[in-house]
Give the backbone structure.
Amino acid sequence: MSDQKIDSRLFELYDKYCHGYMERREFMQKAMALAVGVTSAAALIESLLPDYAKAQMISFTDERIRGEYVTYPSPRGSGTMRGYLVRPMGPNERPAAGVLVIHENRGLNPHIEDVARRAAIEGFLALAPDGLTPVGGYPGNDDAGRALQSQIEPEQLKQDMLASAQFLQSHSDCTGALGATGFCWGGGMTNTLAVELGARLRAGVPFYGGQPASDDVSKISAAMLIQYAENDPRINAGWPDYEAALKADSVDYQMYMYPGTQHGFHNNSTPRYDEAAANLAWERTMAFFREHLNS
């Protein structure tokens, strides 16, 4: 089943399944009724699951970067966290601004590691934390990752992301300038970090993420670049209240909604990927970080 044949209603069902609003059996029953050219449940799942091998943009061994897995303390969260730290390399190595790259609701999968490498290629010190560290880390597939992440208390996850931001900002290879970006759950966490970190975060770029409570928006000091998919009613329903609060509290923000796109359009490992929108959103993200983190 090609991405051209995937009914938009199937994406909506998959979104509900991915985010815990529908059990697998109900999803399969409803999805099979919509799928075109698919004869089995296995084939349907295969058509929707990510293909990380084909989607890698930057190699682990790219000479422009150096990546490593690191551990660091999270005293108010899991105790110890693990993440993927990627440094830009070059003839004149020096500290770089830090960018935290926050995964979806399934842990540190290969796609998010690739996004961290993309940020490092652009000259940033990138850290992609694995929120699944306390349950053994990303298990190798997204379905299992989602199940594991749902078992972790939200407050613990938040504290682990805050600890990750602190680790990155205080790293000897970081200038101290800190930005954050994230996708889906990570987009919502980017908004949360903007609230929690205040002036310690200079720039936040949430991709299709849940919004903070309106009463908390006044705590945001970071400049915000907020990116949404057009066909994403679950997330977009929260935008009007968020926008009103951003305006009322005079937060520096920009918002882009990408026409014709689905939730997850930046993820080039899945059929929801929209190449033109993803490229434009990433260009805007990097330009935004250069403006606010390198000044």
